[in-house]
Design brief:
The complex is a heterotrimer of chains A (368), B (261) and C (238). Chain A is α+β, with helices and mostly antiparallel strands and 368 residues long. Chain A contains 10 helices and 21 strands. Chain A folds into 2 domains: 225 residues, 3-Layer(aba) Sandwich (Rossmann fold), CATH 3.40.50.300; 135 residues, RNA polymerase II/Efflux pump adaptor protein, barrel-sandwich hybrid domain (OB fold (Dihydrolipoamide Acetyltransferase, E2P), Beta Barrel). In chain A, strands 7-8-9-3-10-11 form a 6-stranded mixed β-sheet, sandwiched between helices. In chain A, strands 2-1-4-5-6 form a 5-stranded antiparallel β-sheet, with helices on one face. Chain A has a 5-stranded antiparallel β-sheet with strand order 14-13-12-15-21. In chain A, strand 17 and strand 18 form a beta hairpin. In chain A, helix 2 crosses helix 3. Chain A is elongated. About 8% of the residues of chain A have low confidence. In chain B, 78% of the residues lie in helices and 0% in strands. In chain B, helix 3 runs parallel beside helix 7 and helix 5 crosses helix 7. The longest helix of chain B has 34 residues. Classes of the chains: A alpha+beta (368), B mainly alpha (261), C alpha/beta (238).
């Protein structure tokens, strides 16, 4: 089942084109409000777009040009949302049997099949409970069972792990990876981890438009846009490739593996906040001055991080944009870089403070 | 629904509200001549009237469900600038004095009425029949059902209905299995209010249907008539009406209370 | 509602003017408004307040202590209801008789009281429990007709409006009612003069101005007779 869709929802500022190959999973990666849910609801047919077209394996489900509109119940597209999806007035078993019965099966057969599905998602014991008695993770699993039990031709999962505690989300992710293996699936998520673990392809959605798309590994490891980089938990430094270096426009030179780029062409390196360190405070001013002069900072033994790789002496000057607590560390988000520091270190910084990040690895440069 | 929702100052007002309703009822109970109650309440004319009241109110309530629920859905889902006007029109029987409601029915379905004239020509007479009683009761009770359903349907986002569609369910299946169970509290409220209103209907019935024992004389009409001759009898019959109404309401509300607890 | 209107009335006020509250049957609205005016003209400083409703409603309110000075009922039975609340034995001040009433033009060609025993004629009468109904039953008995009404109304107004709207072909109401309503006409009714409904009046014990109350009663029985006659009531000789 190949899914190909173009969605235009003017009122929501959405204009997107997506394609998923048969049996594959596409992750639509974007923050809240980027239009992910609109796109999924439109593909499912529960939202009518202003323009666009959706084809599923040769069947046109929607085509604005020819006024084709297949109602959701005839599309065979399963939808799981981040909301409370289960019908509260019926038991978990009847919820799962709902789609099977709708296809014409007898109540008894539908229940038998539904129980099989509940077993598969590990919820057979909860069959006769009411949805309100389930935990968030259990409810999501039951919803998944209900959706799959209706034998959809394609599956749409809208933030399937939102609102589920970390442990349950982890189990659920394994389950989703299992059940979507051979199903044409679109997963909307704000978490790059979901894309990494579940999707072969990713499309990064920014303000209702696709900022970047392609194979998951490529897009997330070598993002071309700052937005895609941010969604991937990375930052991108763009410049010109040299021999073993990438020179940034401000004169900073980064030691890089330039095997994949030709000297003199535009190139970029992508780094994660966790892969870099805050440079020693004592060398901050010095380094900053040198950076301003366009010089390259000499290696200083006391600032080389433990286990630092060869060439890990590159530092990049930046200015704090904001500080963001993340568990036991604080993410220092600069205007072009990001670095995780301890809360004690973060206390010395505030928006506008200059800082430098030290690269402990030699990143791979890629063409842009 | 916890006490925390309710500031203390509301309590005296709540008590006052309860007293406002309870006091006249209690005063009525004190006036009842209990020794004569069985004889008065079981008189043939009282039983006739009670039986007629229960039958007509039941049919009127069924009509309110059959017609009011679709109208409530239509009002809730209809997108038009004319909607407030249509809603106001539908709810008019709530504010209309019942006697005026009876006149309005007369102008529509009476022998010389808008529709009634054609019915009369076709040999169908509504006036002075039990059908007229049911019509009058439905007319005054319908808004309760429409209002209850409309507000409940409006409050629904349609999320579950959309999901039911993606699971392959038709609109009717979705209505019966997903929407209606979710509307249960509103449907029960609407039904109980409609039945109570139909049971107590007096003015529109008197004006539109007349008052003939066994045909159009419902219990409220019998009470009004009895009062002319024997106020004790009227009070006794009123007690019967209240007990019947309270019993019906209690029976209808019981399942909801059990579920909420 | 009527109680609210009447509350605080019936007392002589400090400036010498006084208010007299009269509870009178609904059918007396027109002649009593004439009487009210002429009584006030004859008694400067007296304001007569008329409270009109069904006799049974008024009787019930008097028993519950409504501040009324005088009660004029449409029927001796309702006067009997108030019992010892009457300050003196009630006196009959007017009479009324029944007549057949039909919609203007008499579409069903009702000619006599026999028509009210004809099931093909849609007729409405007062219920036997109310005064006009009791009179109607006596009239039917005198005429030897078994009434087959489509509705037994609780008031004359109910009968009258159903006939006036063309809902019914014929009804039995008081002669005075026909004059008050457009769209209806009376049909000569045999034996009608043999069923006479008497209107009693009495000053009430609750009145704190017994002389004025008794004076009003006396006025209705004498000077007021002209106004009653003008509106079709039978008058009484004194």
């Amino acid at each position: 089942m190949t899914l190909d869709t173009r969605v235009v929802a003017a009122a929501r500022g959405v204009e997107v084109r997506l394609a998923v190959r048969a049996g594959q999973t596409l992750a639509v990666l974007g923050p809240n409000g980027s239009g992910k849910s609109t796109v999924l609801a439109t593909i499912a047919g529960v939202l009518r777009p202003d323009d666009g077209r959706t084809d599923l394996d040769g069947d046109t489900l929607h085509d604005h040009a020819t006024r084709t509109w297949v109602p959701p119940r005839q599309r065979g597209i399963g939808l799981v949302t981040q909301g409370a999806d289960l019908f509260p007035a019926m038991s978990v078993l009847d919820n799962v049997a709902f789609g099977i019965r709708a296809s014409g099966a007898r109540a008894r057969d539908a229940r038998t099949q539904a129980l099989d599905w509940l077993e598969r998602v590990g919820l057979a014991g909860a069959a006769h409970r009411r949805p309100a008695e389930l935990s968030g993770g259990q409810a999501r699993r039951a919803t998944l069972a209900r959706t799959l039990a209706a034998r959809p031709r394609a599956l749409l999962l809208d933030e399937p792990f939102a609102g589920v505690d970390v442990e349950a989300a982890s189990r659920l992710r394994t389950l989703v990876a299992d059940v979507t293996r051979d199903v044409t699936t679109v997963i909307a998520t704000h978490d790059a981890l979901d894309a990494h673990l579940l999707a072969q392809e990713v499309a990064v959605l920014e303000h209702g438009a696709i900022a970047e798309s392609g194979p998951t590994r490529t897009v997330l490891a070598h993002p071309r846009t700052d937005f895609a980089a941010r969604m991937a938990g990375r930052f991108v430094l763009r410049g010109t490739a040299g021999s073993g270096t990438v020179s940034l426009p401000d004169g900073t030179t980064i030691a890089a593996d330039t095997a994949a780029v030709s000297a003199g062409t535009p190139a970029a390196v992508a780094l994660a906040a966790g892969e870099v360190h805050l440079a020693h405070p004592g060398e901050r001013e010095l380094g900053h001055e040198r950076a301003l002069r366009g010089g390259r900072e000499p290696a200083s033994p006391d600032s080389t991080p433990p286990g630092g790789a060869p060439g890990g002496d590159t530092t990049v000057p930046d200015v704090v944009a904001w500080l963001e607590p993340r568990g036991d560390v604080v993410r220092v988000q600069g205007t072009r870089t990001a670095v995780d520091v301890t809360p004690e270190t973060a206390a010395t910084l505030s928006p506008g403070s200059p800082f430098r990040v030290r690269l402990s690895d030699v990143p791979r440069a890629y063409a842009i | 629904m916890t006490v925390a929702m309710m500031p203390r100052w509301m309590m005296p007002l709540a008590v006052a509200a309860g007293a406002l309703v309870a006091l006249p009822l209690a005063a009525t109970a004190l006036r009842i001549d209990w020794s004569r109650l069985p004889e008065l309440a079981a008189s043939p004319s009282a039983l006739d009237a009670l039986g007629l009241s229960l039958r007509t109110a039941a049919v009127a309530t069924a009509l309110c469900v059959a017609l009011g629920v679709p109208l409530g859905f239509a009002l809730a889902t209809w997108r038009s600038r004319a909607k407030p006007a249509v809603r106001a029109l539908v709810l008019a029987p709530l504010v209309l004095p019942p006697v005026v409601g009876g006149l309005a029915l007369l102008y529509a379905f009476g022998r010389r009425g808008l529709v009634g004239a054609s019915l009369h020509a076709a040999g169908v007479e509504l006036a002075f029949t039990t059908v007229a009683v049911v019509l009058a009761q439905t007319f005054v009770a319908l808004p309760f059902m429409v209002l209850a359903v409309e507000s409940a349907v409006s409050a629904r986002g349609g999320h579950h209905e959309a999901l039911a569609a993606t699971l392959g369910a038709s609109r009717s299946v979705t209505l019966w299995r997903v929407t209606v169970p979710a509307l249960r509290p509103a449907l029960i409220t609407g039904t109980v209010l409609a039945f109570a209103r139909a049971l107590g209907e007096f003015g529109a019935t008197l004006t539109f249907a007349g008052s003939l024992p066994g045909v159009t004389r419902t219990l409220p009409l019998e009470i009004y008539l009895q009062r002319e001759a024997d106020a004790d009898a009227a009070v006794a019959l009123a007690a019967v009406l209240v007990v019947v109404a309270v019993t019906v309401v209690a029976l209808a509300y019981r399942p909801v209370v059990r579920r909420a607890s | 509602m009527v109680m609210g209107l009447a509350a605080g009335t019936g007392c002589a006020s400090s400036d010498g003017s006084s208010q007299l509250t009269v509870f009178a049957a609904a059918s007396l609205v027109e002649p009593f408004s004439v009487i009210e005016e002429s009584f006030e003209a004859a008694h400067p400083g007296v304001d007569v307040v008329m409270v009109h409703a069904g006799s049974a409603d008024l009787a019930a309110q008097i028993i519950e202590g409504a501040p009324a000075d005088v009660f004029a009922a449409a029927d001796e039975a309702q006067m009997a209801v108030i019992g010892e609340h009457a300050a003196a034995p009630p006196a009959v001040f007017a009479t009324n008789t029944l007549t057949i009433v039909v919609p203007r033009g008499n579409p069903a060609a009702v000619g006599s009281i026999e028509s009210l025993g004809d099931p093909s004629v849609v007729s409405v009468v007062c219920a036997p429990q109310v005064p006009c109904g009791a009179s109607s039953a006596r009239l039917a008995a005198l005429a030897g007709v078994a009434l087959v009404p489509s509705s037994e109304e609780t008031s004359v107004t109910g009968v009258l409006s159903k006939v006036a709207e063309g809902h019914a072909d014929a009804g039995l109401v008081y002669v005075t009612d026909v004059a008050r309503r457009t769209g209806v006409e009376a049909v000569a009714t045999e034996h009608a003069d043999e069923v006479v409904n008497a209107y009693p009046i009495a000053a009430l014990t609750g009145s704190d101005q017994p002389d004025l109350s008794a004076g009003f009663v006396d006025y209705v029985l004498t000077t007021g007779q002209e106004a009653l006659d003008a509106y079709g009531f039978g008058t009484v000789q004194r």
